[in-house]
Structures are given as C-alpha cells and as structure tokens.
Amino acid sequence: MAYVLRRLALVPPTLLGITLLTFALLHLAPGDPADVALAGEGQVQVDPAALARFRAAYLLDQPLWRQLLHYLGPFDLSASGHPWFGGTGERPWGGLLVGDLKSEIHRPHVRVADELARRLGVTVPLAAAALLLAYLVALPLGILAALRRGQAFDRAAGALVLALYCVPVFWGALLLQLAFGAGGLDWLPVVGLGDEGAPLGERLARSILPVVCLAYGSLAYLSRQMRAGLLEQLSADYVRAARARGLPERLVVGRHALRNALLPIATLLAGVLPALIGGSVIVETVFDLPGVGRYAYEGLQQRDYFIVLATTTLGGLATCLGMLASDLLAAAVDPRIRHG
Questions:
Q1: Most exposed: 50, 166, 268, 272, by fewest CB within 10 Å?
Q2: What is the mean pLDDT of each successive set of 10 residues along the chain, which is 340 residues long?
Q3: If you compute the radius of gyration of the chain from its CA atoms, what whole number of angstroms results?
Q4: HEC letters along 25-54
C-alpha cells in the first residue's frame, strides 16, 4: 500500500509537467483560436473589434504566464474572476487544480469536463475490449509459436504478426471498411455507433471493426514478446533441471517457464494502454466515433487550447495508471518483486 501511495503521489507533478509542455507547444505552433473562430463564421476580412473582444474574453491578449495561471488555477483570472486579480468576483475559482477544465472556446456553453465524460463512455469500452482481445489472442499464439519453434506453425504465425505489425492503423481501418462494409461483404456497419437509443446488438456490431483495428498492432507486438520470453525461459538452467528430475512437460512449461515468461508481458501493459488511447485518434476519426481521440483531433483543428490540454492531460493520466498497473501485475506474477 505504501508503494502505491508513493506512486500516486508522483502523478500530480507528472501531469503538471505534461500540462506545461503542452501549453508551450500549443503557443509555439502556428494558428490562433480567434482567427479560426472568426474565419469559421465566413468572414473574408476579420473585424478588428470583434477579434479584440474574442481575445479579451479568453485572455488571448494577456501574457502567457497569466494565461497559464488562469488554466492551472485555483484562481479565475478572467474579467469575471477573482477580485484579487481585477475580476468582478462572479466566478472567483477555476482551473485544473480545482477540477475545472474550462469551456470550449468555440462552444462556450459546452464544458470540456462534461464532454470528456460523455466521450470516455465511447473510448474506454473500445480500448478495454481491444486490450482484452489483444492479450487473449497474443498469449496463446506466442506460447504455441515458442513450443513449436521452427515448425510450420511458428513460421506462419511469425509471418502473420509481422504483416499485422507493418500495417498502419489508418490503412488497416480503411481496408476493414472496404472488406466488411457495404462496398464489400456488407457484413458489418462501418460508420458511427448508431443512435443513443439503438439496441445493444447494433452498437456491438458497430464496435467490432474499431476494436479489431485497435487491437491488431498490440496483438502482433505482444505475441512476439511472449514467444521470445518463453523461449528464453525454456533454455534456462532451472528448466533443464526440472526436466532432468522427470517432471512432465506440461508442468515444466506451465508451472515454471510460463510464469517467469509472463513477467515482461505484464510490464508491457504500461506501453500498450497509452498506445490504445493514442491509436483511438485515428480509429475514431476513420470510423466516425464520438470518442476522446476524435475530440482531441477536433480540438487541434480548431486550435481550442482547452480541449487539447484536457485530452493530453488525460492521456498522461492513462500512462501513469498503466505504469502502476503493470508494476502491480509484475509483483503479482513474481513474488521476488513483491518481497523486495
């Protein structure tokens, strides 16, 4: 428990560093929310007065340090913010430190936190299903390939996972749409998740291709790691000693070699989970899914600083939790780590 608490204590400073870096990169990148918003209204020439009002409303005309403190909080530094900083006192508190992720710049009536919560209901089930599918397929595939090293199954499995690993996510998504959509076999719907009141079966059918697309890259990577780890353990001295004592092969593999080979697979969770969240940007865009990945992409297109900061911080939180989960899994697999 003390170890978990220490690791959790490192999460806030890590997220703060991610926020600072993202904030700096956003302001170094070309483009401005005010220009994008007013140009989106069809104005050929932007009205300087309207531009000035927009910038003042979102503190874009203020120094960067003031904009950063306004986002971090706990004080709201806008015109209606804390009176200590020249505001009216209508909304004194705000910012990341008090759980306020602000409102969207281009849709001021939409709170970023509320929109993130709604879109997490799409992204999290897809990522969890993809993670489960990747492990359920990769582990048996890697184990069988290791036990049949050099045989036809091992070569076929190696060629398959190499092909999967080399296929980019966006291309794989398009191929799946062409193969199983209306232009191909017409087995599955390929766009959207349906209406909110759609039957569960329809929503599950619409989720099959996105889950497969999210899972196949991780599946290929995990299966090769499983194969390599098991082959390394099977050549170890303690395995040869177990065989010399006359233990059955299923006990040698299952009770001794496999348990130690699972240790690096457990630690890979720290990299697989953020990769699934990052890959959802492409998958959700191609399949037109209203998830967090597409939300981040839309925020970048609109130069909406608050959306990009919130989704990036959420990705950093997922990475931290994934690393913690992988450490706990490693301790559960290997008692030596737990005792240490």
A1: 166
A2: 81 90 87 69 63 81 88 86 84 87 87 90 87 90 90 91 87 88 81 74 85 87 89 86 84 82 78 68 87 88 89 86 79 62
A3: 25
A4: HHHHCCCCHHHHHHHHCCCCCCCHHHHHHH
**CA 6 – CA 312 distance, rounded (Å):** 23
**Can you give the pTM of this predicted structure?**
0.81
Both structure tokens of 108: 């001021």
Cite the DSSP H helix spans in the chain: 2-9, 11-28, 33-40, 48-57, 64-72, 112-147, 152-166, 169-180, 200-234, 237-244, 249-251, 258-267, 269-286, 292-302, 305-333, 335-339
**Which CATH number describes the domain made up of 112-339?**
1.10.3720.10
What six digits make up the tokens of 109? 């009536």
Query: What pLDDT does residue 45 have?
Result: 63
Whether 322 contacts 11, CB under 8 Å: no
pLDDT of residue 314: 87
Q: CB under 8 Å to 143, separation ≥6 — which residues?
A: 226, 227, 230, 258
The 3-state DSSP class for residue 229 equals helix
Helix (H, G, I), strand (E, B) or coil at 9: helix
Domain residue ranges of the chain, discontinuous segments joined by +? 112-339
Would you state the pLDDT for residue 164?
Answer: 87
How far CA 126 is from CA of 102, 173, 215, 239, in Å, comes to 26, 14, 10, 39
Q: Which residue has the tokens 């457990």?
A: 266
**pLDDT of res. 115:** 92
